[in-house]
Amino acid sequence: MTTSTLDHAHDDHHGHAHDHDHAHDMPTGARRWLFATNHKDIGTLYLWFAFIMLLSGGVLALMIRTELFQPGLQFFRPEFFNQLTTMHGIVMVFGAIMPAFVGFANWMIPLQVGASDMAFARMNNFSFWLLPPAAILLATSFFVPGGATAAGWTLYAPLSTQMGPGMDMAIFALHIMGASSIMGSINIIVTILNMRAPGMTLMKMPMFCWTWLITAFLLIAVMPVLAGAITMTLTDRHFGTSFFNAAGGGDPVMYQHIFWFFGHPEVYIMILPAFGIVSQIIPAFARKPLFGYASMVYATASIAILSFIVWAHHMFTTGMPVTSQLFFMYATMLISVPTGVKVFNWVATMWKGSMTFETPMLFAVGFIFVFTMGGFTGLILAVTPIDIQVQDTYYVVAHFHYVLVAGSLFALFAGFYYWAPKWTGHMYPEGRGKAHFWLSLITFNITFFPMHFLGLAGMPRRYADYAVQFTDFNMIVSVGAFGFGLSQVYFLFAVVLPTIRGGEKALAKPWEGAEGLEWTVPSPAPFHTFENPPLVK
Amino acid sequence: MNQPRKPSNLKLGLVLAGIAAFFFAAVILQHFV
Question: CB B3 to CB A229 under 8 A?
């Protein structure tokens, strides 16, 4: 099952105490999932975990929108409201978006590079099974004295050095999820660099593998930085250090620098794999090769490198020399160049293509349209004087939801519709998929577009109450949010579950214009694939 | 199965883990210099 002699060597001294021999057969029941070492099973686990977290984070979001439907306090105490916004962010970023992309990576990277599995199959199991305990820590932190952490997903000091045990639970949860991410990234890099099929050179790799390779390097560089920051927060809280405590000679602004040195690359960690998925889908449904493949690779690498030198654009209002403001402003603007290359290439791929608009393509084109709007507001926010005006307003909330929901989440949906035939062996119901797309697109915009106006008018984020002049837009936003939430419930019950249970049989290559090794294996993909590596051209 | 694979998976994995450990140590230790 595993590919290297090294892993078989581990078998000898690592064998289970049971007399059950499942070495080369498909295990069944709970063991299949608990002891999973198969990349497809682990990918499935990741995807279900991420979806459950998406719905959980969605419930938190809807509680936020319930309170904000009207001005004044109707349902929740402000302290609890802050817990809701904080946990919504942490759950969505670390529990939903990141694990979902790792799920896609587990499923698709071995299939796309012609490897029989991930490089470290047992570590892969460990990476996944770290996540549920972290999720349980986060969920139960609502019930400890003082409740869950309410310092915002950024866990800024000094708030984070003052809160109750819910803060410690969030810190431990982030440590665990960070370790999981690092191990997952090591697995992905080693798989891509060492286990490609003969003839699969780096510059022949599908874009999804390229974007994940670069993302994995970003993760290895910055997840330890987050771990360091929250470790220092922990020692400040319990062991008498003063890293971020001004009274003890520390510096709370230093926390912000360290956090955003992680946080800005983290933004690209959540969007680069989305670029990869879209770069696979657009050529398939335009029936043309990707325009500018090499420039796509270089643009991805450029975005990754630039992401390390822009972090302080999140901190313009903390006070910094004007030269620093200028540097971070221009460096941030520079990122729009490689991003523009990507958007140009996607549009050029579609140019004069024989396009059809099945659901994956709808989500991919929707992604380009709405993500680009989020990118433009990002450019606006990069301008220091504008940022100083609108920082911590709903303009920022609108901006990053355009990037993270219409960007990352829509690309995840696109990828689901594109690869679900390969995963399940069934075609999804096309009409329902299209309904899911249009419902999501419309309700997404109802939810987040008015937030631009609210932010420009001065409504601050992270407050349970607001001035009465913001009421109308907030009501629209709340209605849109419930519509968006219900659209995802529709996705689960009308698309995902029926596709798993049955439906039209999928061909090995259900999409006429699709290219790549994953379409050379049957649908659903057998438990073991590419045990003998394929020869690529 | 048992196809010949580059035997350096473990080495590359350890190098990458080392990079991660370096960043973790650096971000804390820079406070002490």
Answer: no
- Identify the pLDDT of residue A537: 77
> Which chain B positions have a beta carbon within 8 Å of A180's beta carbon?
none
Q: Most A CBs within 10 Å: which of B23, B32, B33, as the mutation test of the A interface? A: B23
Find the closest chain A residue to B12 by CA distance: A190
- CA–CA gap between residue A309 and residue A301 (Å, rounded): 14
The pLDDT score that the predictor gives to residue A118 is 97
Which pLDDT does position A17 carry in this prediction? 42
- DSSP class of residue A146 equals T
| pLDDT tens figures, A358-409 | 999 999 999 999 999 999 999 999 999 999 999 999 999 999 999 999 999 9
User: Considering A175, A264, A422, A426, which one is annotated as catalytic?
Assistant: A264
Confidence of residue A28 (pLDDT cuts 50, 70, 90): confident
Interface test with B, best of A194, A236, A251 (most B CBs within 10 A): A194
**Which residue in the set B5, B8, B13 is minimally distant from A120, CB to CB?**
B13
pTM of the model: 0.93
Q: How far apart are CA A519 and CA A108, in angstroms?
A: 11
A533–chain B Cβ distance below 8 A for any pair:
yes
Residue A192 to residue A112: CA distance in whole angstroms? 10
Name A156's Cβ contacts closer than 8 Å, sequence gap at least 6: A252, A255, A256, A259
Beta bridge partners of A426: A505
> What span, in angstroms and rounded, lies between the C-alpha atoms of A352 and A287?
10
Chain B residues lying within 8 Å of A6, measured CB to CB: 7, 9-10
Yes or no, beta carbons of B27 and A182 under 8 Å apart: no
What residue spans of A15-143 are helical by DSSP H? Answer: 29-34, 39-67, 78-90, 98-113, 121-129, 131-140
Count of beta carbons in the 10 Å neighbourhood of residue A289? 12
Crossing angle of helices A98-113 and A252-286, in 10° steps, is: 40
Per DSSP, helices labelled H in A287-391 are 293-306, 322-334, 336-350, 359-382, 384-390
User: What contacts A381, CB < 8 A, 6 or more positions away?
Assistant: A313, A387, A390, A395, A396, A399
Element of type H or E holding A17: none
Three-state SS at A505: strand
In this complex, is the C-beta atom of B15 within 8 Å of any C-beta atom belonging to chain A?
Answer: no
- How distant is the alpha carbon of residue A156 from its chain centre? 22
The radius of gyration of chain A's CA atoms, rounded to the nearest angstrom, is 23
Above 60 in pLDDT, residue A1?
no
**How many Å lie between the alpha carbon of A256 and the closest alpha carbon of chain B?**
13
